[in-house]
Each structure stands twice: as structure tokens, then as C-alpha cells.
Amino acid sequence: MQTFTYKGKGDWLILKMETENEEITGILSFYGAEGIIEDKNGLTAYIEKENFTDELQNILKQLEPNLEIEVNEWLDDGNWFETWKKTIQPISIPPFVVAPTWENPELKPNEILIKIDPKMAFGTGSHETTQLILASLKDYVKPSSIILDLGTGSGILAIGAAKLGAKEIFASDIDEDSILNAQENVEINEVSDKIKLKICDALHSLEEKNDFNLVLVNIHTSVILELLPAFSSFNGIEFILSGILNEEAKKVKSKVLELNGQILNEKFKKEWSFLVVKF
Q1: Residue 18's CB: how many other CB atoms inside 10 A?
Q2: Which letter does DSSP use for residue 139 in this model?
Q3: Neighbours of 217 (CB within 10 A)
Q4: 51 backbone φψ class: left, alpha, beta (φ>0; ψ -120 to 50)
Q5: 229-238 residue pLDDT tens
Q6: Strands of 112-116's sheet in order across
Q7: Hey, what domains does the chain have and what are their CATH numbers?
Q8: Alpha helices (runs of H) in 189-220, residue ranges in sequence order
Q9: What does DSSP say about strands 12-17 and 238-245: parallel, antiparallel, or unpaired?
């Protein structure tokens, strides 16, 4: 049974829940939630009390019947942002340090700073799927790399690749807000000369930018499985895949082998898998 627990009083609610369902983040955003953060503890979102309607709660119940949502605080309008900012801290993902725009961490020699303006559900580097790819970029990005970043979100992977010296990155997402956020982050990190952003789906990205030699894919397993046949038509190209739950990795690997592909690398972080494949 889905349950909602409330604590405190005021105009703003902080919703906390354990879920991996990205549809929920989209629905919360549509209903006006802000400062949505996904991390190892689940999902946190800030929403005005008047927007946490019965309609929204019923939709969430339909999406995930056993979802438990706890409201830990009710804050006056204007206070939530400062509270939310305190939850976002710099993260070390060697060789990178990922920090929100309001933090200026002291870097060690050879560390590379990525600044991200976190908005709604978009990546700040806290999620394991992002960390798996970001930590591995140094092993795959070369000065000659022309990279396709599918489902770019905040643009964090594209920015990391640019800062490692990639020649060019084409980053796409189907979500307009993601692209707007990514554009801000690209400009903040001063890599606009290397990264082109576009609102489009993965298949159109493959068609539009077909001279790539490395592809970054951090999206749902179900979408990866749908895209693998298209990926298999690009011979000799390495695809770095993340967003795959450990129990689903076998299905992805089987499909890759069925399409005469190779599994070049496999890593794990908690319940998530990372694969590098080539056809």
C-alpha cells in the first residue's frame, strides 16, 4: 500500500522516497516540484503544498503502488532553496571533482573540476550510473574522439569528455529542460566550442551525427535493449553503456552477443552495471 507521512507545517514540502522510476521525477517536475535530487538514499523533491494534490498522489500510486513518500519538513516559500543547497556537496569521481556552481572546492594536483547547476531531476554526479561512466572516461577519451552522448541530462558526461580533451561531442536528450540545463552547464564549464546540444531521440542522434567513434549511453535498460540493433550497424565503434541494473545486465549482454557484438569491459557499483561493447 502506498503511504504518505507528514511532519511539520508550512507552504513548502520536502518529499523523500526510495524509487528508481524516472517517470516519477518527470511527473513531479510537471506538477511543479523543484530541486529534485536522485542519490544513494533515493529521491528528494521540493514542492509547494498546494501542488501536492490528490491528483498527483493518485498518479504516483498508479506508477508505483508500494511507494512510500515521507514529507520531512514544511518550509515557507523562499527557505527551501537554501536548505536544498546544503544537500548538494562536491563529489570526488577521479579524476573529476563535481561541484555545484555555488561551491569552490580546493583541487588536488591533476584533479579536474566540473561545475553543475543542479536543476530538477538532472545529474549532479551523485548517481552510481553517472559515476561509472565518468570515472571510466579517462580510459576511452582521446584527442581524436568524436563522441555521441545519448540522454545527456545535465551534460555532465559530455563536459567531462570535453575537459579530457575530446575533439567534439554531440549531446542529445528528448527533454527540453535537460538541454536548457545542459547548455547552462556547458557555458559555465567553458566548453561550448566542443559540445553541440540538440533536442532529439537516440535514433535521430545516430542518424544526424554518424562520424562518431565513441558513444556514451546512460539510459534505461529497456531503451538500451531497443537501441542495440541500431548500435550494431556501426562496426568498430565502442559503446559505453550504463543505467543497467545488475539483474538486467545478463539480458543486455545476451542481446549484444546475439547481434555479433563483443563485451569489452564490465564494472559494477552497488546495484548498477556498466558495459563497454563493440560490434
Answers
A1: 12
A2: G
A3: 24
A4: alpha
A5: 999 999 999 9
A6: 91-93, 96-100, 112-116
A7: 3-85 (3.30.70.980), 127-278 (3.40.50.150)
A8: 202-208
A9: unpaired
